[in-house]
Design goal:
Layout: E1 6-10, H1 12-15, H2 32-40, E2 44-47, H3 51-55, H4 66-69, H5 72-94, E3 98-105, E4 115-118, E5 121-124, H6 128-140, E6 146-149, H7 154-166
Parallel strand pairs: 1-2, 1-3, 3-6
Antiparallel strand pairs: 4-5
Bound molecules: iron/sulfur cluster.
Iron/sulfur cluster binds at residues 11-13, 19-20, 50-53, 105, 108, 110-111.
């Protein structure tokens, strides 16, 4: 079988909602719609580590605001993760693969792209990992689309991804 030569990088909980903080998951396991979309388009899915799970409070953590996470060690871990992610992205690009994008998760204080949670509300803002990722991308002077998946509005998230797939 030939390689499709297209990949997408996804936040950990897109494939494993068990990693979400208590009460924040919307699916029992993986987000099926996204897996189906990418599988049908012949796109490989690369799962990123979950910063909150690995560097913060583990599986039994309660939801917290960005300010509770925004400490030197946690930001440093997100920065390290961003640079290792961009190395992987560069590796694919150098071999002429298409990197469809990097998928974050809206409302997360870590992986939110346009919105972060503030108590039970979502407010405009970026998560800590996404901020560090954008800084690293600027330093390296390259741009890959970063798209936030909104678990409360999968319809609009799917539409965004479909149009992205159409033009790649
Ligand atoms: S930190 Fe990111 S990957 Fe981990 S559960 Fe939150 S949104 Fe998902």
């Amino acid at each position: 079988m030939h390689r499709g030569r297209k990949v997408v990088f996804v936040s950990h909980c897109i494939l494993n909602q068990n990693a979400k903080s208590i009460g924040r998951g919307k699916y029992p396991g993986a987000i099926r719609e996204l897996i189906e979309l990418f599988a049908e388009a012949g796109v490989g899915i690369v799962q990123l580590p979950c910063p909150q799970l690995d560097f913060n409070s583990g599986l039994d953590r309660k939801p917290k605001n960005k300010s509770s996470y925004d400490k030197k060690d946690y930001r440093g871990a997100c920065k390290k993760l961003s640079s290792s992610l961009l190395k992987q992205v560069e590796g694919y690009l150098q071999k002429n693969y298409t990197v469809i994008g990097i998928l974050g998760v809206e409302s997360s204080p870590t992986c939110g792209v346009q919105q972060i949670a503030n108590g039970s509300r979502s407010v405009p803002g970026k998560g800590i990992f996404i901020e560090e990722l954008e800084i690293e991308m600027q330093k390296k002077n390259f741009q890959v689309p970063v798209i936030g998946i909104n678990l409360n509005n999968m319809y609009s998230s799917m539409e965004k991804l479909q149009s992205l797939l159409k033009y790649t």
